[in-house]
Amino acid sequence: MDLYKAYLHIKCDDQSSKIQTITTHKGTYRMNRLSFGIKTAPAEFNRIMDQILREMPKCEYYFDDIVVHGETKEECAENLDDCLRQLQKFDLHLNQRKCVFFKEQIDFLGHVVKYNAISKSPKKVAAIMEMPRPSNIEALRRFLGMVTYYSRFIKNASTLTAPLRNLLKNNTRFEWTAKHEAAFIRLKQEVASDTVLMPFDPQLPVQLACDASPHGVAGILSHIVNGEERPIAFASRSLTPAEQGYSQLDWEALAIIFAVDHFYQYLFARPFSLVTDNKPLVRIFHENAKIPKMTSARLQRYAAFLSGFNYTVNFRKGEENSNVDCLSRAPLKGPVNQTDSAINKDVVTAVWS
């Protein structure tokens, strides 16, 4: 469902209305409703929408787009009725031409969402496929921005984006070569692939597989359905120059910390299975073991951070961990959060939680 002229539903008090005064050649006008173009309007509108719909667990929203769902048609109809009554209570109007009801799949925020599956929007994929070869930095940034939006679907995103991202570095001449053309074409092929992710379901078992290489760290969040791993999302990043000097053990530990931190919203306050192909870490990070005193200070900090989670750690041979191993050897390049520094700030809270 789509709200009709969303911001104009929000009434402004006298002080806020005065701030929105504009002067034109036809006179001075003052807006009595939240005006489009105000810098704080999106945040204010989202705050109000959250207050209106927060008590409705089967109702999702993004600005003026609202999605109501249910496991059966009857449940969906009941949830829809509740949502419409809530919108009516606060005098919010819908744009009838943009509303659709009782669909088995929808196109929402660039994704096709249906039962137990999330895939890329064919319209967005077509738009990416039609993008011409970048001729300057701005065009390259636009292309990479579109591709990065779907990076959670691309296992080897970093391998393909690295040559293109190198062109964005300071003091680098923009010169398109054969390797850039190959990366550009391959990225389009990956975007056009039929990779399907599973929506997160709090009722299903969760597994986090982690791995590291000299190039980067990675993690794959999955559900276990009938003994089969169903991916929810992929994540990876390259190592910083300082991290490249770590030992193999520290790399593997860093991969775990990176993945747990990245998927924090899915893992905190719920049990999950942690999978690694490094046997020593199974002992060091064992859920029932005390933090070993003889380990390095870095690993002790990592263990303290993990002590705030409810997990079991399992060993899996490297050859059986090939899916996440591929990600770590092809990390997604981009801004890096210094995991070590973040843990230093939160380690006390993690230990005592």
From TrEMBL:
Q: List the InterPro entries.
A: DNA/RNA_pol_sf, Retrovirus_Pol_polyprotein, Rev_trsase/Diguanyl_cyclase, RT_dom, RT_RNaseH_2
Family matches, as Gene3D superfamilies:
3.30.70.270
Determine the domain of life of the protein's source. Eukaryota
Start and end residues of each Reverse transcriptase domain = 1-113
Q: Which SUPFAM superfamilies match?
A: DNA/RNA polymerases
Name any one GO molecular function. Answer: endonuclease activity
Record keywords: Endonuclease, Hydrolase, Multifunctional enzyme, Nuclease, Nucleotidyltransferase, RNA-directed DNA polymerase, Transferase
Q: What is the protein's given name?
A: Reverse transcriptase domain-containing protein
The species this protein belongs to is Nesidiocoris tenuis
